[in-house]
Amino acid sequence: MFKRWGVGLLAVSLILSGCSSGNTAEGNDDDPIKIGVLASLTGALESYGKQTTRGFELGLEYATNGTMEVAGREIQFIKEDTETKAEVAVQKATKLLEEDGVDFLVGSSSSGDTLAVLPLAEEYKKIIVVEPAAADTITGSEFNPYVFRTGRNSSQDAVAGAAAIAKEGIKIATLAPDYSFGHDGVAAFKEAAEKLGAEIIHEEYADQAATDFTSNIQKIIDQKPDYLYVIWAGANTPWNQIGDMKVQEKGIKISTGVADFATFPTLAPLVGMEGFTVYYHGLPDNEVNDWLVKEHEKRFGEAPDLFTPGGMSAAIAIVEALKKTEGDTDSDLLIETMEGMSFESPKGTMTFRPEDHQALQTLYAVKLEEKDGFDYPIPVLTRELKPEETEPPIRN
């Protein structure tokens, strides 16, 4: 069990000058352990990158009891902005591997960015801990042995989403962004919902950078489904237009995964909606989450958001693996160590499934309810969806 403590966040050492990967001897007690964090620090997913990097820094602190060391070796991490562009993600990852000589990669906010970087992890034989990118293909068709994911995948989301609404005879339409995250998410949701007897009668995909969803929503209305299941990521959500076009008044119920704080005000028309969430700070009941909420509120003046605990989980997973290897960063040893490894996170116990290195984890079935002091609905727990319930198919 980790110790709980409340000192201020220690300064994290950053690499100020480049060094070649050849200068980093794996397992050398005199060398720092270097972690390169890829995140969308600008662009459409900027808020996700901010959440992940905050959580990662807090996770290193928590897992090392504030020493920023493991097995006597200093931990350093370097943040790089992918700009939510796959080609930039590759450039930044290459820089981290070649110039900074990192021992691990972490990231990224976008599934597209992450999929572009996965071959580099294999080429350079370095572990990449994927967080929070959710596309199934990351631990599916594009999997390689250096990939471990603490973030949930689209199939885990789908199982949770389907459990909330799908049953025999229900007709469902979907709306999702037109890239790997959206297509994988719909495919996984369709599989899960059809197992429960529902029928997917229409799949609608919109440009991930879109601001006008009128034509997309009208196509869905024309199909007259019982439910519209929405998969979305980013600041430009379709909720306002769904409300403006009175989708619910037309007899179409809405369901979705409840996302980050920025989307909550747009959910005002959806009070009573049943769906799921990856995380909301008031839902998990465990020591790690208690520490995260307390420290995050103290340092940043607000509760941790949707992907903050994911960043923390990635850091904890790396530190726990390094404890087991006594600081040795040899990738073959780390793979052997991390396959099947369980560790504590803000969402409870996670376990890296040996077959595809996907972390099995808890998700949360919720209902949106009004709450005093808030101008928008808040997700209230209906039940925890345990790791064995949300275990996705093995697709690699």
TrEMBL record:
<comment type="similarity">
    <text>Belongs to the leucine-binding protein family.</text>
</comment>
<dbReference type="InterPro" id="IPR051010">
    <property type="entry name" value="BCAA_transport"/>
</dbReference>
<keyword id="KW-0732">Signal</keyword>
<dbReference type="Pfam" id="PF13458">
    <property type="entry name" value="Peripla_BP_6"/>
</dbReference>
<dbReference type="InterPro" id="IPR028081">
    <property type="entry name" value="Leu-bd"/>
</dbReference>
<protein>
    <submittedName>
        <fullName>Substrate-binding domain-containing protein</fullName>
    </submittedName>
</protein>
<feature type="domain" description="Leucine-binding protein">
    <location>
        <begin position="32"/>
        <end position="370"/>
    </location>
</feature>
<dbReference type="InterPro" id="IPR028082">
    <property type="entry name" value="Peripla_BP_I"/>
</dbReference>
<feature type="signal peptide">
    <location>
        <begin position="1"/>
        <end position="25"/>
    </location>
</feature>
